[in-house]
Give the backbone structure.
Amino acid sequence: MTATGSTDDAGTGPGPDRAAQPDSSSPTGPPLAPETLPRWPPATYWIQTTLAVVATLAVVAAARRATHVLLLVLIAFVLAVGLDPAVRWLGRFRVRRGWAVALIFVGFASFLALFVALLIPVLARQIQQFAGALPGYVADLQERDDWIGDIARRACSSSRSTCSMS
């Protein structure tokens, strides 16, 4: 045993520092602290929270006022991300980025122009055919003996234009 009362350096014996601490698991240990009432946060917490809410509302209001600008930025971002692979592919052929973007836009505009040029004659022909067949469609609707025919006859009689039975 040493002079401090411990038996060895491993701390297996009762040392003065171990004997002074009460055992909280024993029934004779110190009483547990009574539950305290919840405390309100300090005033700085409420000030910071209020400022955060006001700042959030200000950002939302600014974003609502600038939606047209934000929409343009979003469209530009989508175009930039979408065009990047094609621009890089053209860059392998030593085409500068600006010229590559211009080539892609010219190609896209040419495709749209060709599409519209091919679509308009077909669409015009179908509209003419529909306009020519429309009186027959109306006559067929008026001859029906169900609720659709009733509605077609009422609509024809209430309109100021003449509905002819072809």
Summary: The longest helix spans residues 97-143. The radius of gyration is 43 Å.
